[in-house]
Design brief:
Alpha-Beta Plaits; five-stranded antiparallel sheet; 272 residues
């Protein structure tokens, strides 16, 4: 057998193999089944996806816009709104606050003497501040209301200091000082409540808010006074009530033998 004959026989066998494979029973049926299974899986996936979308749609609730009159009003904070700064409380400053007793009427002189001694004895880092508590009060002069400054505690000073032997010696031996206020030999510092009650708390004051001024009480309930102005001028009577907030008082005036309560301004009466 020649080489060409061998090639021819091999080609014939290969063709027979291909033909026998194509004619094998059941091959087209298997392919069709595989394609059908793939289509079925795809249809199932699409149905599952549609079901999930349907469930999501059912959960979403559409709310119709209602009447704005039924809506709740909310507070809106304006970032640009001007907020009054808060000053630190006097109690939060370095040192403690102590009360020093002085000769009455010499408070200002004692304050000057103590300030001079602090500088001359180089204790600025131990004695920080000396304060004479003042307040604005209303007085009535000549029938007119006048605001004046008065000492809250005549005969006393407030000293903010770091207490030790040196600072105690400087304050105690200042001319005009009679001693510290406190129990025992060692002075007692003021509490936060006491300091803020006298000097203020440092709370922010609203813009345009006026400082409160209290009237000076020169009268007592039961005291006899004379009415100086108004329809009851020159009548005498006893004070039955004092309204500090309104700067008024009630005087029992004798009219036709009967005591009649008459409400008057503080400036409408005078002491007998």
């Amino acid at each position: 057998m020649t080489f060409s004959d061998h090639i021819s026989d091999t080609t014939i066998e290969a063709d027979d193999t291909v033909d026998s494979g194509a004619d094998a029973p059941g091959a087209p049926d298997a392919l069709d089944a595989a394609i059908a299974d793939a289509d079925a899986d795809t249809d199932a996936d699409e149905r599952d996806e549609r079901d999930e979308q349907d469930e999501i749609v059912e959960i979403v609730e559409v709310v119709e816009p209602g009447d704005l009159a039924d809506a709740d009003l909310l507070d809106v904070l304006d970032d640009d709104a001007e907020v009054a700064p808060r000053e630190p409380s006097p109690y939060e400053r370095p040192g403690d606050w102590f009360v020093v007793h002085t000769y009455a009427g010499y408070e200002n002189k004692v304050k000057q003497n103590l300030a001079s001694r602090v500088r001359s004895m180089n204790v600025e880092e131990q004695i920080f501040e000396v304060v004479i508590p003042m307040e604005d009060v209303i007085e009535f002069k000549g029938g007119r209301k006048v605001v004046v400054q008065k000492k809250v505690f005549p005969g006393y000073l407030l000293v903010r200091m770091a207490l030790d032997d040196d600072s105690w010696y400087v304050v105690r031996n200042t001319p005009g000082v009679t001693g510290f206020v406190g129990n025992g030999a060692r002075p007692t510092p003021l509490s936060r409540k006491e300091v803020e009650g006298i000097l203020g708390s440092g709370a922010a004051v609203e813009p345009g808010q006026e400082k409160k001024v209290r009237p000076r009480l020169e009268y007592e309930v039961g005291e006899q006074v004379r009415v100086t102005t108004g329809p009851f001028a020159d009548f005498n009577g006893a004070i039955s009530d004092i309204d500090v907030a309104r700067s008024k008082l009630t005087v029992l005036v004798n009219i036709f033998g009967r005591e009649t309560p008459v409400e008057l301004e503080l400036g409408q009466v005078a002491k007998l």
